[in-house]
Design brief:
The chain is α+β, with helices and mostly antiparallel strands and about 425 residues long. Helices cover about 30% and strands about 30% of the residues. The protein is built from twelve helices and 21 strands. The chain has helices at about 15-20, 30-35, 70-75, 130-135, 140-165, 180-195, 225-230, 245-255, 310-325, 355-365, 410-420, 425-435; strands at about 1-5, 45-50, 55-65, 115-120, 120-125, 170, 200, 205, 210-215, 215-220, 235, 260, 265-275, 285-290, 295-305, 330-335, 340-350, 370-380, 380-390, 390-400, 405-410. It has a five-stranded mixed sheet with strand order 12-7-1-14-13. Strands 16-17-15-18 form a four-stranded antiparallel sheet, with helices on one face. α4 packs antiparallel against α5 (about 140-165), α9 (about 310-325) runs antiparallel to α10 and α11 (about 410-420) crosses α12. The relative contact order is 0.15.
């Protein structure tokens, strides 16, 4: 099973996760060009080598309109009464790292993005609606867009709980600016490219002490980070600094299949994503990808009976479940009470996604109750490979394990070729097979 392990012994931030995952790719320059083609307004990505405690890794830099946020600009933002003291996650670099913990308190009541320029640097205030608009326009798959919005939903919920205000009144600072949107988008795009079957994350070092913000002193981890990491194994230590940011915490929470010790695995690539600040320990996130012998995991199957929904409504609901990370969604005919014909809806998901999937089921269906079955799932190891053909590069899924190996061309590639060449799917597949 293709497994990604993230070692967060020095916490996590968006740029550090992006850099660690980028190091796992053999074609880093090509992927960097892909990041720069996302179309995030004013954003450019670059990376450079960085050494911490004698270990070489990568640091990812994001510039907005040619400017990278600096500690000086960040410090300057504290001199003003407005809540535009945002902080980018290039990280563990600033003494004042949690101004976003007061995101709901800026004075503007309307939901559009606000910019305040100080020393030539624009500080933006963005609502969840603004984030959705930005994400909707980027050049990425629907899966990546859904992942980005899911990460921001975790942050918005945490800020809402921390400050006791509705999610609709939350206005992002550190996490709402274009540079942070870029960090989240980069990690989500990298996860799509790497396509691990399971993600294991170590217990998370959150740091210790206190952090000063525009409205006072907050404990580490700050309230939003602590809320996001509930039910996750975390620990502090002697390092008096904020090591895990809300964005880093949300990315880990969204993608982790489980939190725990490193599994027994045969690693094929190792990446180090570096922060800027120096500590006695190497300030980095370490990512390892490889194969694990275990080819099973635990999934939740959520079921309900429906007899008062149209086929179109059920189809729309299924789309929402898949976009949110469902492993499988299917329906079966069922006999309901009073001999009414109905539908049995089953949604399979990872246990970590159960609560989110339950909310979606109740939102998008008419059911009054959901049943849960916990199952052990056994799967073949799957990879996505690309091969040159007479039609250009065509991707195929390769599955192996339990003594078998199977290959299947990616449907979207076959469909694209069929449309372009005015052929049937069977004809395209036959010509590809004959050329092998």
């Amino acid at each position: 099973m293709k497994t990604l392990y993230l070692d967060c012994g020095m916490g996590a931030a968006g740029d550090m996760l992006a850099a660690a995952l980028l190091e796992l790719l053999p074609d880093r320059d090509e992927f960097l060009a892909r990041l720069n083609s996302l179309g995030i307004p004013g954003v450019s990505f670059s990376c450079e080598k960085s050494v911490k405690c004698g270990i070489q890794g990568t640091h990812v830099t994001v510039k907005v309109n040619g400017t990278e946020e600096t500690e000086e600009l960040h410090a300057h933002s504290h001199e003003h009464e407005h809540e535009h003291d945002h902080e980018h996650e290039h990280e563990h670099e600033h003494e004042h790292e949690h101004e976003h913990e007061h995101e709901h308190e800026h004075e503007h009541e309307h939901e559009h993005t606000h910019e305040h320029s100080h020393g030539g640097h624009a500080h933006r205030h963005s609502s969840m609606h603004d984030i959705e608009h930005i994400v909707g326009d980027i050049q990425a798959s629907e899966k990546v867009k859904a992942d980005i919005l899911a990460v921001y939903s975790l942050i918005a919920e945490a800020e809402s709980r921390a400050h006791g205000v509705p999610v609709t009144e939350i206005h992002f600072h550190e996490v709402g600016t274009m540079d942070a949107v870029a960090d989240v988008a980069a990690v989500c795009l990298l996860m799509e490219r790497l396509s691990p079957e399971t993600v294991v994350v170590s217990p998370v070092h959150v740091g210790s002490g206190q952090v000063r913000c525009a409205h006072g002193v907050l404990p580490v981890p700050a309230p939003a980070t602590a809320y996001i990491l509930r039910d996750v194994p975390i620990y502090g230590g002697e390092i008096k600094s904020e090591l895990c940011t809300p964005t880093g915490a949300a990315l880990l929470k969204h993608f982790a299949g489980r939190f725990g010790d490193m599994p027994v695995m045969r690693t094929s690539a190792i990446g180090y994503g570096m922060g800027k600040k120096d500590f006695p320990a190497a300030n980095c996130v370490r990512a390892m990808i490889g194969e694990t012998d275990g080819s099973s995991d635990t999934v939740a199957e959520l079921c309900c009976n429906l007899d008062d929904m149209t086929a179109e409504a059920i189809g729309f609901a299924e789309e929402q479940f898949f976009a949110a990370g469902a492993l499988e969604v299917y329906t079966l005919p069922a006999q309901m009470k009073k001999s009414r014909p109905g539908i049995l809806l089953s949604v399979m998901c990872r246990e970590k996604d159960r609560d989110r999937m339950l909310r979606l089921i109740f939102r998008h269906t008419t059911t009054l109750g959901v049943r849960e079955n916990i199952s052990r799932r056994y799967t073949l190891s799957r990879t996505l490979e690309s091969a040159p053909t007479e039609f250009g590069e065509v991707r195929k899924k390769v599955s192996s394990g339990y003594g078998v190996k199977r290959e299947k061309y990616e449907y979207e590639d076959l469909a694209r070729i069929a449309r372009e060449k005015e052929l049937s799917l069977a004809e395209v597949a036959a010509r590809l097979d004959s050329a092998r």
